[in-house]
Batch of 2 targets.
Target 1
Amino acid sequence: MLLVCSRKCGGTLFRALFAEVDVDRTGIYQDHRVTQPGYVCLNCGAPALDLGEVPAALEEEAREDEASSIVTADVLCPVCETMVQLDAGMECPNCGSPLEVG
Ligand SMILES: [Zn+2]
Ligand SMILES: [Zn+2]
């Protein structure tokens, strides 16, 4: 986890919005658990962002890009024999014949 203020105010302290705090019988803090992600900057009150989550999000995006590029394929038009790159369900740009990928 790497929290940063979404306003980039430079604040380095944050507050977990959803946390359970364990105390001993005299009420002194012992431990805590964050029950839901959600933090605010203590300096300016803006929501905080977890930069530790960003690489995972980027990786997911990259995987989606990969998946969508698989849909595109080079297909030889059976009518005019033009090599066309297309998505599923397109027509040949040269002669207008419907083409199927694969
Ligand atoms: Zn801030
Ligand atoms: Zn064609």
Target 2
Amino acid sequence: MAATAVLLHPTTPPDYHRIISPTLQIPSNPQVSIPVGILACQRDPLLRQINTTVVSCNVSQPAAAPSGKKTKKAVLTPTLPSDPILEVILHDTVIFPEGGGQPTDTGIITTEEGKVWSVVQAKRHGGQGVHYVQVKDGNLESAIQAFTPGSKVIASLDEAGYDRRYDHMSMHTSQHLLSALLETRLNLPTLSWSLTSYPQPCYVEIPRGMSPEEILSIQTEANRLVFEGRKVHIEVEELDRDKERPVEVLESGRAVGRGLPEDYTGGVKRVVIIDGVDKNPCCGTHLPSLHNLQVFLLPHTDALSRSSTTSARLYFLAGPRLIAHTISTHKHLVDTSTILSCGAPLVPERVSQVVEERKKAEKRVGDVETELAKYISRDLLSALSESSEAVFKKHIHRTDDSTNPLGFLSSIASALTAGVLPEMKPHVIILSSSSSVQTSAATTVVLVSGSDDKLVKAAGDALRARLGVKGGGKGQKWSGKFTGVWKESKESATVAGILKEINQ
Ligand SMILES: [Zn+2]
């Protein structure tokens, strides 16, 4: 018999969402929007689609671009397209508006006539979830018509929207698990956390760094709870702001986490519970169990220094992000071991060997260059002492793929200056060096060295005027750069002409 595999969509258990107050009700009137706190995406995080009704629709007035440096949030929120945007409020939705450190969902809305609209962002305004709907064809009038209050629509998470949400849920639920273990096992409160852009590791900020043993023990315990598949559920009741405890503040003055947003007007108090592990107020969407989550902690913490206090970041991965991270790091390792022709475990040793050899090779090249510079300058000095001209003039052109060809030319010039005797004739030497690959963007470095400032300046001025060499100098040295192809018959010939015209 042939094997078959049936892929079942996971579903949220009926006891996931619990209304613990006898008076809190989910509005059933389709003309009223259900407040953020008890939206469908929060009651049933695995639901992908809902039939619902338009409550209101307004044309979005684009906010002024934020000035100054971009906030971390800007990385996560998809940028709004330049098309017109409608701000649509629905009776209910599966598209989560950003909150609790969890970024916005993206999704689609299908209107009555069957047209599919992209929801590029969803935000909480007061207590309401607002869908930012892109009007791709720019026809605002017909878009407003499609979203007439009272009309029936389908709000959905499309494939990309669901993948994005599933990743966010995996990271957010693991953050609750991780923060609870850090708090209860090591007395480390979570000061803040960041759900970074996929596929980067997320992090929690804690008051101090952790040892590798501490990190491993927390990871082991987290994964024991994952293996058990501890259940997660939500409890909601009416919000009584007077009963809310203020956010705890450490001795250092740092607040522990964030309290309920000041501007939240939804009137719902929502608590996320991981059975026997954690109970935390949060508006985010959370997986119904820890099953299959697998938490991986990067085995180090990064120290952070603020003006008066220090803290540390502990990075973590879970769910789809952990798989993406494993695939990419494995690929890096395999690619590197192929380059080094060794097995993966030998990579660190081989890399440090290569680095060490390179350092040695660089030093040797430096030593050899100094030695060679002496020989070249010795030849120049003997030609200088045998010369019968009033001013000894010479051009030497080299082809050199060194990363610092000017350094070598300077070594030659220095060795020459050091060997010049007082009785020797005045001289001016032009040294140039091009790379072996000549293109219109290639650079040739040029160095002028001479026995007096006037000769050097005359040569430098002429190089600038006749060859377009950009540079400058002081005293007996002048250096510059020529851009383009350096030809023996043209550029070197011009240099010869320049030297010929220089007189004392
Ligand atoms: Zn949360």
